[in-house]
Amino acid sequence: MNLFPARVYKIELPEDSTIALNQLQQNTKLTDLLVLESTDKAFIGQVKENSFKVISSAKYGAFCVLSGDFEGKVGSIEIRLHLTYKILSSILMLLPILSILLTLLRKEVEKPIELILPVLLVILFVRFIIVELNFRLISKKVLNRLTKIIRISAIKNVA
Which is more confidently placed, 108 or 143? Predict the structure, then answer.
C-alpha cells in the first residue's frame, strides 16, 4: 500500500492523439508551474507533442495532477496527488507523533502506551478519510472533465 493514492488508466481515443492533444491545448492555460490560478480554461499546465501534465482550473483542481502519454490512438493517464498536498498531508500525519514525543520527553503521562491508539486513529483518519476520499472524488471529476475535452472512447483502470 502506498502512502499516497495514485491511479493509472489505459485509454483509447476515437481519432489520432494529435487531435486530442490539440483540443486539450486549446482548453489549457499553458504554464510551466502547476499552480491554481483564475482562468477561463478547463486546465492549467503543459501540453507537449505526445504528452501532457495538467491540473484542473476548478477550485478543487490542484489536488490532483494528470499526466498522460499517447501513441496513435492509445495512451495512458496517471492521476496522482499534487506535491503540495503530499507535504501538507505528511505534516498532518506527523503532528500526532511529534506531540507524543514531546509528551514523553516532558514525562506528563504515566502510561505512554495509552497514547498509541489515538495517534494511530489520527494518522488513519488523515490518510483514509481526508486524503483518499478527496482523491477519489476529485480525480473522478477531473477525469470526467478530461474525457469530455479529448473525447476518450474507452478507459481501463490499470493501477
Answer: 143
pLDDT > 70 fraction of the chain, expressed in percent and rounded: 99
Closest to 7 (Cα-Cα) out of 151, 139, 154, 142 = 139
Tell me which CATH code domain 6-85+123-157 carries. Answer: 3.30.310
Residue pLDDT, tens place only, 8-24:
999 999 999 999 999 99
d(CA 100, CA 147): 46
Q: In the sheet that 154-157 helps form, which strands lie side by side, from edge to edge?
A: 28-30, 43-47, 51-56, 64-71, 74-81, 6-12, 154-157
**Which pLDDT score is estimated for 1?**
64
Domain spans of the chain, in order of start: 6-85+123-157
Q: What angle do CA 156, 146, 45 make, to 5 degrees?
A: 120
